[in-house]
Amino acid sequence: MTTPGSLYRLLLHLLPGALRESSGPEMEALFLETLERERAARGRRGALAVWGRAATDILRRAPYERWRRRTRPTSGARAMSNLTHDLRFAVRGFFRQPGVTALVILTLTLGIAASSAVFTLLNGLFFRPFPFARPEQLVYLNETAPKWNLEFTSVFYGDFAVWQKESRAFQSMALFTENDVNLWDGTTAERVRGASITRDFGAVLGIRPVVGRFFTADEDRPKGPAVVLLSYGLWRSRFGGASDVVGRTLAINGVAHQVVGVMPPNGEFPAEARLWLPMAGDPNERCCSYSYEGIARLKPGITIEQARADLQHAHGPIWAARDSIHTVSPRLLPLRERLVSDYRLIGSALGIGVVLVLLIACANVASIMLARSIFRQREIGIRVALGATAGRVSRQLFTESLVLAAVAGVSGAVLGRLGLKLLLESMPDRLPSWAQFGADWRIVLFSVGIVGMTAILFGLAPALQNRRQDGRSAMAGGGRASMSVRQRRTLNGLVIAEIALASVLLVASGLLVRAYQRVRNVDPGFRVDNTLSFRLAPPLAKYRNGKEQVAFYQDVIGRLQAIPGVRDVGAVNCPPLGCHLGNFYEAEGAAATNGRGENPVILTLFASPGYFGAIGLKLVSGRFFTPVDGTEGGPTSVIVSEAFARAKWPNVKDPVGRRVRYQGGDSTRWFTVVGVAGDVHHYGLDQPAKPTVIIPMALLAGDSDPPSLALVVHTATEQAALFKSVGDAVRAIDPELPLFQVGTLAASLNRSLALRRAFSWLLAVFGGIALTLAVGGIYAVLSYLIGQRTREIGIRMTLGAERGQVLGLVLRQGLGLVTLGLVIGLPIAFGASRLLSSLLVGVTASDPLTFVGVAIGLVVTGLTAAMIPARRASGVDPKVALSEE
Asked: Which of 198, 356, 480, 632 has its CA 20 to 30 A from that of 494?
């Protein structure tokens, strides 16, 4: 029988089921109570009114309640819910296996840390844009002379003046050169890094002074007004950032200079200059002093190739006027390409090395995750049997990979930053001052990308091998997970890849480390121990000519020689590893140039008689200078190096008594060779000894503007104890004259090798990481495979196999993996090592000792890694192994 309650419950079915279950009984009880009350009060009419209101209310609310309580969430909500579930499941799984999780995170942390540190270094050198407007328009200008054996000669000012007049591809161009100066504030003498620039320097860089103006054409001319531009830092430190600094004076090299402006903070590019002076070049100068470097800004739309062609055309009048055989030609490069040229090869090597480390780390982790997923086959089989799709299973595995990569990414970024700091501290003054190694959007993007890429790389193998998981077979396998042939091959392939990549990296790092050791053992040709040097630059405003300056240096030498503990003191314009001054020489009895018309520039030194003893130079034949050499009325003597003697007189046993003279200019004055000195690696131990001519310092007395000289002091005691005495001796002569470039020759030698040492050992560290990861991969895979073969080993031993046979079985398996990795990796390493040939001094790119050493090292460490699972396998108890099955 139909009752009001049953009819009302039928009407409630219009509402969502969840609402009926939670509120249906209360709604029904309220409806029946109201119905009875209205029927008693108003009869049938009241009952109909209650039914009408109830039906209207349900019909009105039902659509809204169904929409509000809809059971299917949006795709975004479902995805977020699934992701949250996957994350929770992954974290719980990792906590259940803390050892494996820690190993994976540590492995990835090492790979990501190395990648992060190297990318930050490369980003600062190669990718971060210069802090100037439209930096892609900036180009570098120089000149080249292959016949002089010079890739860059520097720029002759007269050539630059012609380029400015004739070129059409440039908005503006300028010259610059480093020009350190003496500052004197009345109490303290200071040597300051400065530069000489032409008036368009700011226009090329697209910068404006924060105070004042740039130089005018009247100031940038010979004998123009003495004016100066300050750096932002010098303005703040010397003048407190005063806005009225323009018009004030600063004593530079003994001359008062008027401040005309202050450069912006980014104006210190490319060197850390603290002030700028007008170059004041003379376009009508006849001598060709190649002393400057140039920068220019291209016009919009002009390509590098068009600019090169335009510069060649602009140089045409110079060739026609005085260089018909085109000995010197203009050279144009993108500005960054020139500034990073010394770092490009080693940067590429580091980049490739760190990629290999990351790949090895990912392969290592992939093998661990693959083994882990094989152990989870039953769990995954149950998921598939319950309806999980292959994509859903793969997403869970990728989520786990992403969590591990994210944790390792954070820890790797922190460790990489620390590693970069240590790397930069190990290379003081060896990286360009304009390079900035702070974080920017490139580093952030790289960090995010590296986390995602590593998650994909090491998560791909387990995801693919489980993509066709059979739920019934997985659950039927019982408690022990089994491995298919495909899975075993995948694991072996990952280990072989690790060995191959590690062998490439180990060969490269081994070659560089051996090259560094060879360079470090090269005889520099001069004394390093107990020898200090410093430079003085007496200003022409006070020491007006060469005669007064030579007298000043002789006075300094005499005072230094009187200091207790000083053995020898000498002066030279360019000490080893210091600077360069070149010239061309004609040798009596030798051809001026070789058969190809080449005429290399010869290193030219001006030295005092005491220099040879102070530097410990070896005398091959003849004699060193005496105090009368080069003086007025004294002999016009020179000393040549062995390399010079071989180049000019290859068939002469002893060239003492032969004569040389400058080629061009004052070519009538001959110098007599009085001695032959041993070769010196003046430009670094990794550079060949250059032909050198040494001229007596006394000859500088005839120069109107002689070069500044360095003092070299050989001591019998620790040099640091004499620094104060040396400074006091100089200040006693001239308190306004600062000492600069103060240090020991040992420190200079170490500093010259710092870049090579840091990069060589950094690659060696990468190689060590790669070796460690590869060994860990061998151990992990063999340990798992032995665990899989416990029953097989038990049967073998039951049938009579000896422990030694089982041990050999496992070791052969490990040796096979190492051998296959070496067969693949060593040929790749042989080809890759050719790319490093320019960095390999004293070592060939196919150095057999390195290749054999890497092969033996990998075999030995591989067998060592295999020994632990091998011993474990040989110790299997057959009864226990069979009973477990």
From this structure: 480
